[in-house]
From TrEMBL:
Signal peptide: none
Protein name: CoA-binding domain-containing protein
SUPFAM superfamilies registered for this protein in UniProt: NAD(P)-binding Rossmann-fold domains
Domain CoA-binding positions: 11-108
Organism: Friedmanniomyces endolithicus
Pfam families: CoA_binding_2
Amino acid sequence: MSDMQSAARLFFTSQSFAVAGASSDPSKFGHRIFAWYLAHNLHAVPVNPTCASITVRRKDFDTVASSSQLKDPGNTGLSVITPPSVTAQLLREAKEVGVKAVWLQPGSFTDRELEYAMKEFPGAAVGGFAEGTVGGEGWCVLVDGDAAMRGVAQERGRDEKL
């Protein structure tokens, strides 16, 4: 198993998730990724400082403006779907409030943001083109999330048998 696969599995051991860049617009990846969490029955909070709520699957969800407003950041995995200039600040804030793990979606980072995430969230940052992704755009929740979740379930199953 690659380091990135391990980080992806660790990400999905989070008790809740936050989606920075979540949107009501179905054509945007922030919308698609937030909907993915909902479809997988995972507790997710939309992070968007420009609106009080978003609508996904005909249901309204209150947003938080930043990761500093998350109820339990230490048990939250943060999916990032923002421009790199926004991602840089978001990562600093996430580190400051103790976010457990981060997943940088394709297009949300440059080498600088990815290096920062790898350094500040050791073993708990997912992103880039490291070995293990099956997507041509790099590590993406929509493409690689199911496999990471299956890995967590398999590990938990082994632990329960012990």
